[in-house]
Design brief:
This protein is about 0% helix and about 50% strand. The longest helix is centred in the C-terminal third of the chain and has 7 residues, at about 645-655. It is mainly beta and about 675 residues long. The model is unreliable at about 1-35 and about 100-105 (pLDDT under 50). Strands 48-52-49-51-50-53 form a 6-stranded mixed beta barrel.
Length: about 675
């Protein structure tokens, strides 16, 4: 594109540039008759047309600044002066510098013009291959070269190219992939390159053709696959017995025929195939196709359960007859066939002996075909058959005491005897077994008040082994021992020594226990250990007189009519504090105790400093619970001053020596 500047008169020049802003033209104060008529620009050159003054030669000065401090000169024998190697998209100042016919130099006005920017390249074509894309630009004489930045569609940079040719080839790309391109043209002036705006476009490499299956054929142990021929280097086929292709067989070939051998008959295989193209040192693969195919099937002879024979210790397995060489039958009591018996037969029946009566057996059958030295098997089928059950027993009578029980069953014919299993668990995790030929069996060594579960079955001895019928289960509970006494209480009390003194005494009482005829009383200074028997009583109470100072805990054990000790009661405790001299006092209703409380009758007491505030006590045989809340000048550690609501009550109390307790 050219920019043209045309002078009109001496001082004003106009610039005409398509799609660009007009340049501004200025002139010096010198009004010489020599001036610039027109300036045409490209990106790197300018053509300046001067007025014809009849000079023998014409020249101009041009510079990037108005003071022409770094001006260069261009000359011509005509009025048209050409300037080359200008910078693109740059403003230049031009001044005539002509020589008149008389040989004198004349001054001239100057003009301003801007060179074109480097032209953005024009894309002529793109041509794609498997791993490369060839980009061709339309040729432009003012462009010295091109740059090309290539990225994947995601934005990740792949490569950058540059060259002076209008054709650039991008190689080592991924097949079947879309790429983004950013192209710039550049012009070099004085060793410096100037670039155009970027041209962006997209293009994609070719994909490797996917394979397709022409034919497939299977035998008992092999699969043959033929692919349709494609314009590729070769083919890869994978075969596995699982969807994840773990431990897959892999065959690679330039031929389209693939054969996998050593396979299992009557089995479905997963197959994956793809094409590849080799270009230089790199290989490019197509998308894969996947399908399944199965090896040839041997017909299965299924168990004909209606024709099978079942006895106590034997089974005869009969199969539906098929056109095969023979049959294999596996028998086990486990679904996993971890312990199995295997029999092979060319007929369609197999017999198993020495089995357990009333037992379910798992039977797995396969058919097989023998071909040359190889044997091929069918899929397996698992079914169940059960041997004949031994007769079940019927319980006709049962009884139980505290430690024994007895059971009577109805007699069964053709059995060796009867087996009794006894357990305290319904699951019979642990049990005791008793075996006998009699229909009545006594069970001993039992626990009182305990629920027992009993399994009774018949058994039959065959070839030295015992086989058992399905058991009949019932339960019973033995008589209970005496229950633990409940409601154990200790009541504080005292016995009279004189008119003003009493000795310590308290009573332990409890509720009557079921099945108890007497009780054992145990005592200890500790709640959880150290108990010794102190009394045997037939009633439901026991009185302790003159206990030692300290803690006393009691438990009660009942004894049944059989003399067996039952379950003990919970421990109950009392602390005997000692004999205290007790007095009475009163106070005003607004008075506060030493701990800040208000005095309360039948509650507040004053005690010596050895006893902490808040401690609760029982005094003598009183039912009230007193609390240490006060002190007194006459109150020592052996004195308790009891608050009364009236002076008369305090006087009547006087001074008494009374035992004091704490309930534990």
């Amino acid at each position: 594109m050219l920019k043209k500047i045309v002078t009109k008169g001496l001082l004003i020049l106009f610039v005409t540039v398509a799609a660009l802003t007009a340049s501004i033209i200025t002139a010096s104060a010198d009004t010489s008759s020599e001036s610039i008529e027109e300036i045409d620009t490209t990106s790197t050159s300018a053509t300046v047309t001067l007025q014809d003054t009849g000079a023998t030669s014409y020249s101009i000065l041009y510079s990037e600044n108005a003071n022409f401090s770094d001006a260069e000169k261009a000359s011509s024998n005509t009025t048209v002066v050409r300037v080359y190697n200008l910078k693109p998209d740059t403003t230049y100042y031009f001044k005539p510098n002509t020589t008149a016919s008389a040989g004198r130099s004349a001054s001239a006005s100057y003009a301003v013009a801007k060179t074109e920017p480097v032209t953005m390249p024009t894309l002529a074509s793109t041509k794609s291959a498997i791993s490369s894309i060839k980009v061709t630009f339309e040729e432009d004489g003012e462009i010295d070269g091109y740059t090309l930045k290539v990225s994947k569609s995601s934005g990740a940079a792949v490569t950058e190219l540059s060259g002076t040719d209008s054709v650039l080839s991008v190689t080592s790309l991924s097949s079947g992939t879309s790429y983004s391109f950013e192209a710039c043209a550049y012009t070099t002036v004085d060793g410096v390159s100037y670039y155009s705006d970027a041209l962006t476009f997209t293009s994609s490499t070719k994909s490797v053709a996917k394979p397709s299956v022409k034919t497939k054929k299977a035998s008992y142990d092999a699969i043959r696959i033929v692919l349709n021929e494609k314009d590729v280097t070769g083919y890869v086929v994978y075969l596995a017995d699982n969807k994840n292709y773990k431990n897959a067989q892999k065959l690679k070939s330039e031929d389209t025929t693939f054969r996998f051998s050593g396979l299992t008959n009557n089995k479905t295989y997963y197959i994956k195939a793809l094409c590849y193209v080799t270009s230089g040192s790199k290989t490019y693969k197509s998308e894969a196709i996947e399908f399944t195919y199965s090896t040839k099937t041997v017909e299965l002879g299924k168990v004909n359960t209606s024709k099978c024979t079942k006895n106590y210790s034997s089974l005869k397995v009969v199969l539906n007859k098929k056109d095969v060489t023979g049959y294999k039958v596996y028998l086990s009591t486990s679904k996993s066939f971890s312990n199995k018996t295997t029999k092979k037969s060319t007929t369609n029946s197999v017999s198993f002996t020495g089995l357990k009566p009333n037992t379910t057996y798992y039977i797995k059958t396969v058919s097989y075909v023998k071909s040359g030295s190889k044997v091929y098997y069918s899929e397996s089928q698992t079914t169940t058959l059960k041997t004949k059950a031994l007769p079940k027993v019927t319980v006709s009578k049962k009884a139980a005491t505290e430690t024994t029980a007895s059971v009577t069953v109805k007699k069964q014919s053709n059995v060796t005897g009867y087996l009794y299993k006894v357990s305290t668990s319904s699951s019979f995790k642990t049990s005791k077994s008793v075996k006998g030929k009699s229909t009545t069996q006594k069970l001993t060594g039992l626990k009182a008040n305990t629920k027992y579960y009993v399994k009774v079955c018949t058994y039959l001895t065959v070839n030295g082994k015992n086989y058992y019928s399905t058991p009949v289960t019932y339960n019973f509970t033995t008589d209970a021992y005496a229950a633990a006494p409940s409601g154990v209480t200790i009541t504080n009390g005292m016995y009279k020594i004189s008119s003003t003194s009493w000795g310590p005494q308290y009573t332990i009482s409890w509720n009557k226990s079921a099945r108890a005829t007497k009780y054992l009383v145990y005592s200890s200074s500790k709640k959880s250990s150290g108990y010794t028997k102190i009394a045997t009583v037939t009633g439901t109470s026991y009185t302790v007189k003159n206990p030692s100072v300290g803690n006393h805990y009691y438990i009660i054990k009942p004894v049944s009519s059989s003399g067996t000790t039952g379950y003990k009661s919970a421990a109950k405790g009392i602390r005997y504090v000692g004999i205290f001299a007790t007095t009475g006092y009163v106070a005003s209703s607004s008075a506060l105790t030493a701990d800040g409380s208000h005095c309360v009758a039948h509650h507040t007491i004053a005690m010596g400093r050895a006893y902490a505030f808040g401690t609760k006590y029982k005094i003598g045989n009183h039912t009230y619970t007193y609390e240490c809340e006060d002190r007194g000048s006459a109150v020592t550690n052996s004195v308790i001053d009891i608050y009364f609501s009236s002076y008369r009550e305090a006087v009547n109390w006087g001074r008494r020596w009374i035992p004091v307790y704490q309930m534990l």
